[in-house]
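A reminder from the course coordinator: this example appears on the midterm review sheet, so study it carefully.

Given structure:
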C-alpha cells in the first residue's frame, strides 16, 4: 500500500500484533514549500534514516508505515487543529483549533522556525494552503496508520504500536529540555503511563538498558499526537514512542550515516524480536 505521503513496508496484513510507524523520516520536498531556508536546513526536523533503521524487521511480518514528505512541511505527529496562528494569513483559523502549546517553540502542525530559531518562511501561509497540506499529508497518514493498527487489532485482539523517532544529541535553542541539554541514548514516551501498558514500557527500557545504553522514560519526550490518538490500553491498544539519539548512528552535521548505523540496526532488530516474544504471550490465538 502506497500513497504520495506514505509508504507501507512489510506485509499489507499484519502477521504480528506489532506495528511500527516513522512519521518524520520523509525527504520528498513538495514544489509548493516556498521556504526561505535551504532544503538542507529544512531537514533539521527530520528523523534521518529512521525508516531504514527499522526496515529489516519488516521481514518478521511487521508493517512499517513511513511518511514521505518532510516533517517541516507538515508534522503528522500533531493534531490537524494544532495551528500556529502566527503563521496564518490574518492570524485566525476558521476550523477546529486544538493548540498543543508547541507553537510556542515554532513546532506546531506546520513548523514556523527551525531548531536554531530561524524563520522558515518570509510570509504567512494562506488558509487554503494549510488545508491543502492537511488533506494531502496529514489525513492520508492518519488513515493509513489507523487502518493498519485496526487490521492488527482485529486479527490478534491486541495491538502494540511503536512510534519511531530520533532526536538531536543536544537540544537546540528551540529544542525540548532547554538549549544545550544532552540526551540519553534512547527516550521512551508513554505519556506518563497512559498510552501503553507500563509493563511494556518497562520491558523495552530494560531490554535496551541491558545492551549498555542509557534509557530515559518520558524525559524530555513523553510522546505526542500519534501515541495519544491511537492508544487505548483498556481496549488492548498500546502505543509507545521510541526516540533514538542521532549520535548513535549518524554524523549530525553532515547528515550521513556513521559506523554506528549497522550495530544500531542489529540492536533494534534484537529489540523488536524480543518485543514479539513479549507480545506473543498476550496475543489471542485464532
Ligand atoms: Zn520524530
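Designed residues:
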Amino acid at each position: 500500500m502506497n500513497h504520495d505521503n506514505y509508504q507501507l513496508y512489510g506485509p499489507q496484513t499484519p502477521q504480528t500484533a506489532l506495528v511500527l510507524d516513522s512519521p518524520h523520516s520523509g525527504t520528498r520536498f513538495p514544489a509548493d514549500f516556498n521556504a526561505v531556508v535551504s532544503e538542507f536546513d529544512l531537514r533539521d526536523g527530520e528523523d534521518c534514516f529512521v525508516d531504514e533503521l527499522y526496515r529489516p524487521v519488516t521481514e518478521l511480518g511487521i508493517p512499517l508505515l513511513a511518511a514521505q514528505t518532510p516533517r517541516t512541511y507538515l508534522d503528522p505527529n500533531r493534531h490537524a487543529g494544532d495551528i500556529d496562528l502566527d503563521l496564518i494569513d490574518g492570524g485566525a483559523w476558521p476550523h477546529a483549533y486544538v493548540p498543543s502549546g508547541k507553537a510556542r517553540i515554532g513546532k506546531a502542525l506546520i513548523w514556523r522556525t527551525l531548531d536554531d530559531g530561524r524563520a522558515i518562511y518570509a510570509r504567512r501561509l494562506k488558509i487554503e494552503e494549510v488545508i491543502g497540506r492537511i488533506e494531502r499529508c496529514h489525513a492520508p497518514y492518519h488513515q493509513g496508520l489507523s487502518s493498519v493498527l485496526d487490521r492488527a487489532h482485529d486479527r490478534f485482539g491486541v495491538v502494540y504500536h511503536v512510534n519511531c523517532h530520533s532526536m538531536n544529541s543536544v537540544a537546540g535553542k528551540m529544542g525540548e529540555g532547554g538549549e544545550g541539554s544532552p540526551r540519553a541514548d534512547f527516550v521512551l514516551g508513554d505519556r506518563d503511563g497512559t498510552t501503553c501498558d507500563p509493563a511494556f514500557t518497562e520491558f523495552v527500557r530494560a531490554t535496551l538498558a541491558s545492551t549498555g545504553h542509557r534509557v530515559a522514560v518520558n524525559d524530555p519526550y513523553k510522546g505526542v499526537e500519534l501515541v495519544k490518538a491511537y492508544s487505548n490500553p483498556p481496549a488492548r491498544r498500546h502505543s509507545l514512542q521510541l526516540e533514538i539519539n542521532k549520535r548513535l548512528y549518524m554524523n549530525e552535521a553532515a547528515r550521513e550515516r556513521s559506523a554506528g548505523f549497522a550495530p544500531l540496526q542489529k540492536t533494534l532488530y534484537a529489540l523488536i524480536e524480543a518485543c514479539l516474544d513479549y507480545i506473543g504471550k498476550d496475543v489471542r490465538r485464532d
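The two ends are 25 Å apart (CA to CA). Residues 24, 47, 165 surround zinc ion (CB under 6 Å).
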